[in-house]
Design brief:
The structure holds 2 protein chains of 2 kinds. Chain A is mostly beta strands. Chain A contains no helices and 12 strands. The chains are: A mainly beta, B mainly beta. At the A-B interface, strand 6 and strand 10 of A face strand 5, strand 9 and strand 10 of B.
Chain lengths: 114, 111
């Protein structure tokens, strides 16, 4: 079935460090892919998305490229800030008749220290 | 602001009590969802409604019921709360190829 696997955290970085959070998905169909961010005490917010192979989603300095050959959608940011501390979720759209549903990874907690 | 509104934000129940979590969206979305979030488990789908008038079970439906009252509202009911239902509950809605819009969550504790 549809599934998403993302790197387990927690991830702790110093301010201005480079961030990568790995995400891979099951290769059922050609799903749209998403990254969501959850700040403490809040709901999830859409961070970026990509709808087809080789698309790059970007927002707030974060980027992720849809890699069909490796079934991956890794999240990157060149220089993290303390305000980026949050939980990050990778997600894929369902396949076939469930293509309106999203399947989420388990989340990766990022802490950025000053 | 347009979005998904959940009530209440916090609730404490005793084992065996019942309650209904309310969710409303004002974006004219067709699909709505209920998730629970537990440490180390990520988000797990409880029930969803692909469109007004339809509801279906998700990954963890036991102990819950839902009602899609109209296009805007999708409620989640716990008939007899158990400590295992202590969690943070999120409602979300979506339309077409766009991603989900989430509510801010309900933090439920069952003692």
């Amino acid at each position: 079935g549809d599934s998403v696997t993302q790197m387990e955290g927690p991830v702790t970085l110093s301010e201005e460090a480079f961030l990568t959070i790995n995400c891979t998905y099951t290769a059922t169909g050609y799903p749209s892919l998403f990254w969501y961010v959850q700040y403490p005490g809040e709901g999830l917010q859409l961070l970026l998305k990509a709808t087809k192979a080789d698309d790059k989603g970007s927002n707030k300095g974060f980027e992720a490229t849809y890699r069909k050959e490796t079934t991956s959608f890794h999240l990157e940011k060149g220089s993290v800030q303390v305000s980026d501390s949050a939980v990050y979720f990778c997600a894929r759209r369902g396949s076939g008749g469930s293509n309106y549903k999203l399947t989420f990874g388990k989340g990766t907690l990022l802490t950025v220290n000053p | 602001n347009a979005g998904v509104t959940q009530t209440p934000k916090f609730q404490v129940l005793k084992t065996g009590q019942s309650m209904t979590l309310q969710c409303a969206q004002d974006m004219n979305h067709n699909s709505m969802y209920w998730y629970r979030q537990d440490p180390g488990m990520g988000l797990r789908l409880i029930y969803y409604s692909a469109s007004e008038g339809t509801t279906d079970k998700g990954e963890v439906p036991n102990g819950y019921n839902v009602s899609r009252l109209n296009k805007r509202e999708f409620s989640l009911r716990l008939e007899s709360a158990a400590p295992s239902q202590t969690s943070v509950y999120f409602c979300a809605s979506s339309e077409g190829e766009r991603g989900y819009t989430f509510g801010s969550g309900t933090r439920l504790t069952v003692v």
